[in-house]
Amino acid sequence: MKMIRIITLLAVGLFCQITLAQETSDPVTPLENTEQMMEEKIRQEAKEAKEAMKRIEKAEREAKKAEKAQKKAEKELKKREKLSSDIDSKRRSIAKDEKKISKIQEKMIKDEKKGKLSPLAIEKLNQKIDKLKKGIEKDREKLTKLESKQ
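^ thats the sequence. predicted structure below, dont judge the formating
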């Protein structure tokens, strides 16, 4: 009985050895399989190229958006600078006109005391003062509008 087991084990080992030796030879791939593999490789490369193009286009779109946002920010900054410049200009204009009014009034008082002013000259100076006051009022209205925009 032991002898039969040993012989069967040797037979099974020999059988396995023979089958393993036969399987190690290079498998022959048919021509159709290689063509299919080439087509699949070409498809894969095309797919990768499309994905790369999509990524490039997306990056370009993002760059354009960033550039547009930067231009918008620069434009907004220029607008704010211009607005603050206009506000300062109006304030200086108002101050300048107020100084002119005070100088004219001082001159009127001086000349009246000396008796140099005629009624016609007084009327002209009062008209000049009224004109400057109207200009100041307009400038103040513009100034309030500009400050509300700020």
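The radius of gyration is 49 Å.
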